[in-house]
Amino acid sequence: xxxxxxxxxxxxxxxxxxxxxxxxxxxxxxxxxxxxxxxxxxxxxxxxxxxxxxxxxxxxxxxxxxxxxxxxxxxxxxxxxxxxxxxxxxxxxxxxxxxxxxxxxxxxxxxxxxxxxxxxxxxxxxxxxxxxxxxxxxxxxxxxxxxxxxxxxxxxxxxxxxxxxxxxxxxxxxxxxxxxxxxxxxxxxxxxxxxxxxxxxxxxxxxxxxxxxxxxxxxxxxxxxxxxxxxxxxxxxxxxxxxxxxxxxxxxxxxxxxxxxxxxxxxxxxxxxxxxxxxxxxxxxxxxxxxxxxxxxxxxxxxxxxxxxxxxxxxxxxxxxxxxxx
Length: 326
Description:
Layout: H1 3-26, E1 55-58, E2 64-70, E3 76-81, H2 92-100, E4 105-109, H3 129-144, E5 149-155, H4 157-166, E6 176-180, H5 194-197, E7 199-201, H6 203-214, E8 224-228, E9 242-244, H7 245-250, H8 256-261, E10 267-272, H9 283-287, E11 294-298, H10 305-308, H11 313-322
Helix pairs in contact: 1-6
């Protein structure tokens, strides 16, 4: 190799890693901006006396992960993936409705890094671990239900994880998908700026870590990359207020256009026109470019109301009853 070319390549590499390192260092954690509205959580004040006890399953690395189970007599099974910052508890009203109507058996996992007693709150071991965990969870469920119709559903970032899962090597394990106000990408037409005040990303750090990841370096993926503006009045110690870079990446589609194209199964998207984090009217034009989708908009329903409120229940009921029919 001629000396000039070697010097040019060496200099380019040094500059690349120098820029990445500076971005990682200057992207230190900051507090979320005060006064930003974000999603309202008023709907979370409901009676939890009928909440199922947490159970455990072992993922491939031996970790014991938590989930709740809502049994019923049905050949359909739906797994509901919670959104960022919270855990499976808030699915109680919807899961209880689905099971009480014998529409489907319902499983609501506390994703790794979340819940009441995670091993490391707000972190995973590597990018892609959440979809591996979900595949392990499905395998556990299917041992006793080998012929069941399996549906993967998710709310907000949980919807983004469902889309990521659909585009992964595991995507065909699901017979259908249902997404409630799903997060697609920070700059997707469906997403308000900083998710309406909910998310506070460390943008410079994320850019720097992404540059390092593109070079195959994941040494610093444990660093905080985003915080969430959860109101003080709904915190009880079980919330997860910040994510490492690797969890933040693992919780969203790799490339939402490609991941959505992988969905050939029945797909339902439900959103409320009162959503504080996303533009509900954008879901149909955006998603329909890549997948056959049925979109239902609920008038004046909020981001949390789309899974907690009663308005979503007849939509879910009609859709579940229609699955598997000619």
